[in-house]
Each structure stands twice: as structure tokens, then as C-alpha cells.
Specification:
Layout (H helix, E strand, L loop, with lengths): L1 H6 L2 E4 L3 H13 L3 E7 L6 H5 L2 E6 L10 H10 L4 E3 L9 H10 L2 E2 L4 H8 L1 H10 L7 E2 L6 H11 L3 E9 L2 E6 L2 H19 L4 E5 L5 E9 L5 E13 L2 E7 L6 H17 L14 E8 L5 E7 L6 H8 L3 H9 L16 E8 L1 E2 L5 E2 L2 E2 L2 E3 L7 E5 L6 E2 L6 E9 L2 H14 L1 E3 L5 H8 L2 H4 L7 H4 L1 H4 L7 H22 L24 E8 L2 E9 L5 E5 L2 E12 L2 E8 L2 E6 H6 L5 E3 L4 E6 L6 E2 L4 E7 L2 E6 L4 E6 L6 E2 L4 E5 L2 H5 L1
The protein binds 2-acetamido-2-deoxy-beta-D-glucopyranose.
Cofactor: biotin
Keywords: ATP-binding, Biotin, Ligase, Mitochondrion, Nucleotide-binding, Transit peptide
InterPro entries: ATP-grasp, ATP_grasp_subdomain_1, BC-like_N, Biotin_BS, Biotin_carboxylase_complex, Biotin_carboxylation_dom, Biotin_COase_C, Biotin_lipoyl
Amino acid sequence: ALYFYHVLTAILIANRGEIACRVMRTAKKMGVKSVAVYSEADRNSMHVAMADEAYCIGPAPSQQSYLAMEKIMQVAKVSAAQAIHPGYGFLSENTEFAELCKQEGIIFIGPPSSAIRDMGIKSTSKAIMSAAGVPVVEGYHGEDQSDECLKEHAKRIGYPVMIKAVRGGGGKGMRIAHSEKEFLDQLESARREAKKSFNDDAVLIEKFVDNPRHVEVQVFGDQHGNAVYLFERDCSVQRRHQKIIEEAPGPGINPEVRRRLGEAAVKAAKAVNYVGAGNALLLNTSGTVEFIMDSKHNFYFMEMNTRLQVEHPVTEMITGTDLVEWQLRVAAGEKIPLMQEDIVLQGHAFEARIYAEDPNNNFMPGAGPLLHLTTPPPDSFTRIETGVRQGDEVSVHYDPMIAKLVVWAEDRQAALRKLRYSLHQYNIVGLSTNIDFLLSLSGHPQFEAGNVHTNFIPQHHDELFPTKKATPHEVMCQAALGLILKEKMLTDAFRDQSDDKFSPFASSTGRRINICYTRKLSLLDGENIVDVAVSYNQEGSYKMQIQDETFLISGEIFNEGDSVYLRSSVNGTVSHMSLFLFLSVGMQSGAVAPMTGTVEKVFVKAGDKVKIGDPLMVMIAMKMEHTIRAPKAGVIKKVNFQEGAQANRHAPLVEFVDEEAESK
Ligand SMILES: *[C@@H]1O[C@H](CO)[C@@H](O)[C@H](O)[C@H]1NC(C)=O
């Protein structure tokens, strides 16, 4: 311990958000100065406020800030930091950066660059594991990347197969092909994402295991040749290959399987040592060995990550450890604080990731201000890992995670109860979140029973998304409300200049209204005209009648960022929708950008004839691909954006030749 305090007095955290705050908390506890770096977009963020020193390193895009190695290195020198903690993502598994740290005599809190290289290149890591006797899944990891060769191997392995970026991680560049028919499409999509994310489009093919569980083991190594495991986490419940709820230990896993998992993981960690002998190559940091597990609890090595994982807190909760403290001690040359036999599993922990996203819209990520934020009160069994506060903004430039809610209790059932109780206490206003979805998920009987697998969300889709579809009449009521409120908004803007007409629909308060006034609106539903009789209730709601059905409606228009939304309540059922998209249905003359992003690929040009649903473009927004499809059949008049261009939300991407002009 003396050695440690002698060496480390200041560390630089090359990250942002919750993980930067998490690392700083431990640094403060240990009396180590925290140095933050930040982009211009993060100037007022929580991790900057929390740090002892903070340095701006560039504009919002990560390439110019959080990935700018030289700038970060310069800050390390200026601030006299002896070590750099990379967190997860960004530079955490970047060989070049680890190498740069070594050259500059700064401790990289992570493994040596050679270990990152071997573990980061998945095809190599499988070969190493196979040789070390760790079970692996059948696949093709060859050099020949031709379509024919890859297709042939996919056929040999047997569909369904998984296509994965060789340098991939976090679900990037990963696609499933269920049959030979869709293989080439999925291959091209995987390559495109791989090229974009890793600048390398090499892929590998693997057998896709049905109903698999994602079980990962936390390991830890030091420079003295010690390696221990801290039991497994189950991270099976995922959407788009990204984790939502993690837990430790894995439900239903018996102590014998647990021991075999742990031992296989340590074997995997030690296997790294056999490569490039000579240097201190043991995993001298936190590592995670990921396994795929079938229903009979057979497990196979998938990959190993040499960084602190997002979900590390559940392991800390069941082992009573502080893994960041371990990392700092081990980086300074100390031994792992506990021997294997001293690491005891206690109780059960869950982590739920709270995202700014819309689960009902295919988990479309969101961004915007946190107008109001209340969380469950943190205590020693409830942790709120976050990098944002009330009033902060969830930025379009980075991951839309708002917080991780981590709970612990003496057993799984009690921990699950606590998770749900705490989720109910979370209250976020200003943007859509997945909190309601997390409640449906954690309350699902199959989740309660511990029957988790990576296909959980698609399999239980209907129960998890119970939002009953609005009936056609309810949709008409929402449309009528949208029109009335929009009209009211415009009228209010001119109230001062104009003579107020005697219309309750033009009044923002309704204070002058005490007679019953009914207005008839005629709306178009497809081919049919629907009459809606609207009357205004004194307390600000509306009564709407369509044929013999009556509805009680209330709502408002609000701005979120640069968009206008309609919040409506139809007989108590509340929904939110983009007013722009909503009111433009039918008047749309082309395709619009669903959110701000970059045009990745353009499939059409002026003069092309398209059918409804044909792909027009691929956009990348919030690190995800969105295919823009033709909203109607027609002829393309103009493509407004070229590949590589940035398009703002709701920007018209493609214009259609209008039908009259066409028929002339
Ligand atoms: C909506 O609520 C009103 C008032 O409670 C009720 O009279 C009406 O029948 C409800 N409409 C429908 C379609 O359920």
C-alpha cells in the first residue's frame, strides 16, 4: 500500500459521463487527484464539476475530443497525472493509445497493448482460447473474405449464422443471417458498419446458438502472475445486441457450473500470457470473459474484454469490492487485494440501464434536456451511477444512457422487488425514457422466474409492449386535438394585434367561455371523411364525438429541442407524438430524416422509379443505422443529400415528382 500512495497522486480520466464520475469517486476516496478532460459540448457537465482539475480538449465530435490521443497526453503531462484511466468505450481498448502511454512513461490503467491487440482481434483470441482448452463455438475465422468463401463457410456451419466484425465489439458490425437468401444483404450491412466503426471490414462467421444466454465472468489479474474470478453476470436481456438489465450471479446457475465457469475464465485470462512471451503480459487489470450458454448450461468462449465493463457494479455488490480501487492498486504494482478463496458471493444484484430512448419506436435514441429529474434515494444497497443532473442535456453526440440503477438484496426475489420499487421512484420529464419498459421487463413472469436468454425481448414482445393500438376513432381525436392546439398556438401569437374572435378554440385560457359551443371538424382518414364534433369543457379538456362514440380529450403542444410534440390523453390513455410527423402524414411529398445524422449510403437518383417501402438511403444517427424507405410509390425528383453529408432532423431527404406534373 505504501508503494501505491507513493506512486499515484493524480490520475487523468479519459472519458465522460457516469463512468468518469464513477472513477473519480474512488480516486477521491483514495486521496488521488482526479483530472478530467471534456469536449465543448460537456463544458457544464457533472464529470467536469466533480473533477479536481478539468481541461477542454476540443469540439463535441469524439474524434476531435475524447479520441484525440495527443491532446489527452498533453493534459496528462500538464496536470502531472501519473496514470490514465480510459473507462469503457473511447480509448479503453485502443492499442495505439496504450502504446503511446508506455512511450510517454504514463501508466495506462488497463492491460498491456499486446493483450488488447490479441483480445481485440476476435479471430486471434478464439485461436488462443482453443489452444488453451477453453471451449469455443464453431465458426470461420479465415483470411479469405470473398463473398463466395464466406457464403460457403456459412453453409458448412449451418444457418442461422452470425456475421461479426473481426475487430468488433458492443454489437457493432454484427448481423444474423437466417438463410442463404439473406446472407449477402446481411454481409454487406455488417461490413459497412464494421468499416465505419473500426476502419476494417473483415468479418467472421459463427454458428448462431438458439435461445442462448450471455453469461460473462469478471476476472482480475496483476503483474505478479495472480488471476482471480469474481463470479458471473447474466447479461442476456438485450435489445439490438445491447444490454438492458444485468444481474449477478446468473439465475439458476448451480455452484458446480459457477466454479467451472470461473476456472475457465481464469484459464482464458492466463492464456493471454502465452503470447509474445517476455513482457509482463498477464492481464494486469479488470477483464471480462464472455461465454454463450445453452439451456443445458454448456458454455462456450465468445470473447474477452480487457476493460472495466459498464455492468461491473453488480459484481462489486455481490463481492463487496471496489473494482476501480483494485485497478488503481494493481496499476501501481500492488498485488490483487484478495485471494480466490477470500472472494465470497453474497446476495444478488441487478443493474438496469436507463436510456433516453423510445422503446415503442424500436428503441429510437433520444436527446434533449432533463427538465425534471428525481431518483430513488441512494443508500449502500441502491446505487445511482450517472453523469447527468436535473437541467443537464442528453447530447446527440454521445451514448444516450442517463443512468445505471444498481440494487442489492439478500436473494434474487428480494433484489428484483427492490429494483421495481426503485424504478417506480425514478421520474424524468423532458425526454422519452425506457423506465416504463424496464418495469414491464422486470415484472414479466418469465423474467421473475429467471428464464432469461438473448431473445427474451422479441419472444415476449406482445406482453412487453402492451400499449394497445389506438382505434381509428381515437387517432381521429388525436388529429383533431393537434389541429385545434396548433390553431390556438398561432392565434395566441397574434392575440395582441387582432380582435379576438369569439371562438373558444382561439382562447388560451377559456376564461370567457360559459356557453356550450360545438364545432364540427371534417378529417380525412385514408379515403373516408370523418366528422368530429368537438365541444370545449370549462376545465380545458375537450369532448369529441364521432358517430355514436364519445371521447374525453386533453393535451398540449410542447417543444423538445427543435421539434414540436403533441401530448394527448384520450379517455385517460396518454401518448406523445411528433406533431410535425403527425400532421405531415398525407401531405408528405418525400422522405424526411427521422433524426439528425449522417447520410451513409444513397440508393436512388433523380429519375428513379420506386415502390412504396423501397430503401432510399441509409443514415447513421446516434451510432445506429436507419434505413429510409419510400413513403409512397413514385418517381424521384431530387436527392437532397449526398453520401457523407449531415442531415438535420426532419430535413427533406428525397423529393418526389408530384403526380400532376408526372401525368402531364
Ligand atoms: C370515454 O369517457 C367518457 C367519460 O367518462 C365516457 O362517457 C365514454 O363512453 C368513454 N368512451 C369510450 C369510447 O370508452
